[in-house]
């Protein structure tokens, strides 16, 4: 099959992103499992999983046990699964994460599903690998609260089953690095790409109903969602992996003053300090700035994947948007103005039926293993449609404010972007000929 130039370009970008975050010795890749779901790219797998971190069955089993073990926390009350529940799409359904003694952080728990493909981890990208990410919550004072890596290792060495398991898997005594490697191995098996959308984009035209298809057209047109959440065969996460200030927290903070204070406090490269600032202090709202100290990163947070978004609310880095209707309202009015608002934010002029169609579409991005839960969440969110704190129709439609012109609305009678298939071909089947040869 000839690879379209757009595919080659996208793969080149992905290769650059992942290699820029990889250590020199991890450039060779692990072979992808077979078969992969239709929405998971084997090429992206090879870019994302180094051979040295291949998720062997033994490492995965140990990692799953550690992921679910509350004994990794100071008071035996909290595990990784507390905030990343497999039954809830590896999230917790809460606005912000809750750790030991019921302490609440400042950030929403992102899903672990497809985290192996992320170019960076956490909302602000402060960790570059799953291994680095796995280490920090265990030590954060309001998450699992263990005082040090040494304390974690000492505790595990007092549990005979772990002494035996680590020796069998790693052929040595327990280390904190090996603990992180095991958890990361388990997380690398949590890929997701078996949604109704995947069946549609590969040619099953009836996989989406009329409303959902209209939503897909809007997603790629008037709603401009694909500016940051493009979805196709080589960008299957519906995320550009970049960081944007979309104004979610602008009404809470004086960003310029907060940034000036942050410059004096943040120590570049001190991952543990940044982790604590992100979860325990008002500096959390500075986002990517905590990592880079670059002014253009003030209030910028990573574009999350839209896969399984129907079941992974509430939404945004602080969990402040309860439903996907709230999310659409936020974007429809162009976000919330602040000095660092991303230049791509502008009013969208979406009507209520168009918002309904967009929400219907994004619910098709949920893995079919969660079909029942997805339906329950859609019903729950739809029941809240009357509660719309982010809604500002006058701004969205240009009746007040000055937030730019609307994106073009494609003429669907000429070409519907929802009909474009996985390799740029139309998914709609041609009518079968009834003539005899």
Automatic annotation (TrEMBL):
Signal peptide: 1-22
InterPro entries: Cyt_c-like_dom (IPR009056), Cyt_c-like_dom_sf (IPR036909), Cytochrome_c_Peroxidase/MauG (IPR051395), Di-haem_cyt_c_peroxidsae (IPR004852)
Location relative to the cell: Cell envelope
One cellular-component annotation, GO: cell envelope
One of the Pfam families matching this protein, by short name: CCP_MauG
Top-level taxon of the source organism: Bacteria
Alphabetical UniProt keywords: Heme, Iron, Metal-binding, Oxidoreductase, Peroxidase, Signal
One Gene Ontology term of the molecular function aspect: electron transfer activity
Region span, Disordered: 378-437
Keyword check for Transit peptide: no
Domain Cytochrome c as annotated: residue spans: 58-190, 210-366
UniProt main location, coarse: other
PANTHER family: BLL6722 PROTEIN, CYTOCHROME C PEROXIDASE-RELATED
Name of this chain's protein: Cytochrome-c peroxidase
Organism field: Myxococcus llanfairpwllgwyngyllgogerychwyrndrobwllllantysiliogogogochensis
Species lineage: Bacteria, Pseudomonadati, Myxococcota, Myxococcia, Myxococcales
